[in-house]
């Protein structure tokens, strides 16, 4: 992993029940090891959200902050884990899409992995941008005006995207380097 130190940087992770377990827990761990303060944000008032792994429910993660109390100004970057259920639920929450759009408008890094880029479509952040994702999202992203690439990580300006859990090291490294710059 990168030797970059991002001590004092605050990273928001927006997720809900059904996030791909490793796509939240591993980037969170790697960011924290690099010095970041990572806050898990979820819609509603749940104290925890349940992950998904291998076709079944996996462990839960504590929610640090309700989405209704979160502001973009309090964070330096946003991470959007995948899992099919998680982004599909978030897309139906206007406050989640507004939060993602506000990050896009701020110019701060937005990092989405696997199915996470679905929410970028709804937030209007992919038109003309280079991205990657889980392969089944390719046509959704291209129909929204993105240029899709099959690579472990694609960075285009403030957007950082990756395809799958195997890409997590490159995904986290790209975000850490962006925050350290």
Structure at a glance:
The chain is of the alpha/beta class and 181 residues long.
Topology:
Layout (H helix, E strand, L loop, with lengths): L9 E5 L4 E2 H13 L3 E6 L5 E6 L2 E7 L2 E2 L10 E4 L4 H7 L2 H13 L3 E4 L3 H6 L7 E2 L6 H6 L3 E2 L4 E4 L2 E4 L5 H13 L1
Parallel strand pairs: 1-3, 1-7, 2-4, 3-6, 7-8, 8-12, 9-10
Antiparallel strand pairs: 4-5, 11-12
Helix pairs in contact: 1-6
Could you walk me through the main structural features you see in this protein, from its secondary elements to its overall organization?
This protein has a seven-stranded mixed beta sheet with strand order 6-3-1-7-8-12-11, sandwiched between helices. A three-stranded mixed beta sheet has the order 2-4-5. The protein is built from six helices and twelve strands. Helix 1 packs parallel to helix 6. The chain has 181 residues and is α/β, with parallel strands linked by helices. A hairpin with a 2-residue loop joins strand 11 and strand 12 (159-162). The mean pLDDT is 96.
Structural class: alpha/beta
From the alpha carbons, calculate the radius of gyration and give it in angstroms. 14 Å
Order of helices and strands: EEHEEEEEHHEHEHEEEH
- Assembly type of the chains comes to single chain
Total beta-strand segments: 12
Q: How much helical structure, as a percent, in the residues?
A: 25-40%
Low-confidence stretches: none
Q: Strand sequence of the main sheet, in spatial order? A: 6-3-1-7-8-12-11
Q: Output mean pLDDT.
A: 96
Q: Count helical runs.
A: 6
Largest sheet: 7 strands, mixed
- End-to-end separation: 16 Å
Task: Provide the β-strand percentage band.
Answer: 25-35%
């Amino acid at each position: 992993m990168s030797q970059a130190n991002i001590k004092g940087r605050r990273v928001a992770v927006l997720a809900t029940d059904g996030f791909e377990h490793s796509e939240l827990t591993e980037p969170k761990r790697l960011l924290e090891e690099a010095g970041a303060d990572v806050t898990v944000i979820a819609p509603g008032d749940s104290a925890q959200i349940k992950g998904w792994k291998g076709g079944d429910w996996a462990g839960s993660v504590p929610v640090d902050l309700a989405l209704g109390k979160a502001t973009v100004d309090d964070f330096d970057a946003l991470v959007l884990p995948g899992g099919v259920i998680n982004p599909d639920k978030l897309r139906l929450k206007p406050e989640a899409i507004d939060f993602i759009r506000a990050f896009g408008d701020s110019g701060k890094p937005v990092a989405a992995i696997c199915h996470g880029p679905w929410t970028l479509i709804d937030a209007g952040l992919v038109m003309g941008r280079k991205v990657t994702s889980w392969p089944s999202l390719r046509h959704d992203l291209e129909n929204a005006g993105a240029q899709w690439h099959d690579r472990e990580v694609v960075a285009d300006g403030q957007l950082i995207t990756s395809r799958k859990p195997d890409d997590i090291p490159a995904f986290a490294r790209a975000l850490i380097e962006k925050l350290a710059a």
